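=== RUN LOG ===
request id: a7f3
mode: sequence -> structure
chains: 1
length: 674
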Amino acid sequence: MTRTPTSPGPRGSAPSPDIETDGESFTLRAFSVGSALVLLLAVACPYTVFLHQTAGMSADFITAGAVFLFFLLTGGVNALLRLLHPPWSLRTGELVVVYTMMIVASAIPTWGLVANLLPVLPGAYYYATPENDWKNLLQPYIREWLVPQDPLAIQYFYEGAPAGSPIPWEAWATPLAAWSVLIGAVYAVMLASMVILRKQWIDHERLVFPLAQLPLEMLREGRAGEVVRPFFKNPLMWAGFLLPFFVFSTRGLHRYFNYIPYVETFTQLRFLRRTMLVRIFLSFPVIGFTYFVNLEVAFSLWFFHLLARLQSALFQVIGYEVPGRAETFTGGGIGTSPGVSHQAMGAMIVLALFTLWTARGHLRQVFRTAWRGRGSPAAADDSGEMLSYRAAVLTLAGGLAVIALWLNASGMPLWITPLFIFAAFVIFLGLTRIIAEAGVGFCRAQMVAPVFSVYGLGTDAFGPAGLVSTGFTYTWAVDIRTSVMASAINGLKLVDAVGIRRTRPLLLGIVLAIVIALVGSVVTTLWLAYTHGGINLQSWFFGGMPRTVFGFVADKINNPLSTAVIWPRWGFTGFGAAVMAGLMYARQHFLWWPLHYIGLPIADTWVMSWVWFGILVGWLLKLVILKYGGVTAYRAGRPFFLGLILGQITCVGAWMIIDSVTGMVGNYIHIGSP
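=== RESULT ===
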């Protein structure tokens, strides 16, 4: 199959004539604008998701909210400032800083952290009933500093405080302070690991980074003195933009005026005695991003989804099932076999280890530089990195130690913490690699660290306190549809592409974005909960998630796992690892081998069940364009496919604004997946 270059070219090749020095990128103006937009995301994302129950603009790796605001900034506000008084407009480097701050912040307000964290913390108390007996099963093992202890503060969080009552901030002070230590350590490890791997992925392997293509095009300069950048004057881009904007606006209008029909974009099919459910959903952003992905990679994504669906269906037909429950978050939720999910975890482990093995030469230089200093023989040049390699390595080691000690203090046995941390960061790193290489803006791991650890070691190894502690990790290590790690490496790619060489000040912007996003989203979420009552807001976060977390823990306390449950799952994990290793070996050693391995670790997740068809359509369109038009036609088509992405995101953003003004609830317009 034909391989096509999809990145903007070598380091610094993206046109950016208005960058004069790196210092002009990291300005007070850039940090101020970035901070203001980060605060807007931190408030608006939970407000619209919880109160208006719209699609999450910060729900996925695509960081739709950041893209929408960046579109308004670069195509509207900045162009107007250029017209009125050019020195007032932000330069390209400043815009990159602003965008990087926004995409990092997007990983925090909703699915990335806060929407999972706050509703779960008091859930074991509020949802305790005589029937589930959580009062005796769970509550004695919950450390007091982990959750609010005031019964009224817990009740009012879910049911709303009486009119005129203040928000009980003091009840949340201790748990929020304790959790900030863990979250700070997790984010520190994520950032340090991306500093260490940046040069390997961007300079040595030259990964594609499809999610960076749209902002790069919005940043691309035209002729000197042009007010509007070329991307916003391209008719083909606007043709692609209007297609999803029109199609999905019919859905928004239908919510207001039910006599206006909407364009249906979803159906589903069943095969093999109705055991194999296949969703057919048209997602324009998925089609657009797939256009920038290598053909073999795109084929791998949709092919392995159908293969995994078929495997689970065949298990049902023949009556075979792996012992134990099919846990939430371990598959597509549509008949996925637990064995297939463990198989995917084995593949994810191999992907993460292979990523580190491929970078072994670079990692040796990094650790040599960290140990002996930059001036030592064969040391790596870290002058252009966001952190020195010594600081990055120390941060990585210190962060991992803090995470292990924190988990132990919360009840997890100390000897188990290395396995759990390994599983969690294998998933984080594996997903980040998939995002950088395959650009799947909508994806999730098929297995999660708590389930993998408990089923891997058995319930007796954890004990009740360890199981409760593991349950709380659902808040930051489970529903991973976006992460600071993936956002950070995409931001570093943008910085590299526009030619910024000295990136140390970028760390300040990222840390600032994280702090503002955390504070803003926590305050907004607590205000919404105590004002409206959590159970009156978005039902999954305030009802489904807490019940899932503590239901899992209570089930494992009541029904300890035997070796008859544990060993078959390790067998599937090993099988998945072996298949992944075989695919990688074939890919590396046989030029004729057509099948890429990247789709196997995320083959049959809930998110992939919605986006696989869009990937298939994007893959097919790119294949046809390359076959009959060649590289020239491929390059000419880029604006249209970028328009598909931007059009649907803008449509969702526009209707969110309208709904916020009118007070409409439930006007849910998909971005890429539910």
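=== NOTES ===
The two ends are 33 Å apart (CA to CA).
The longest helix spans residues 606-662.
=== END ===
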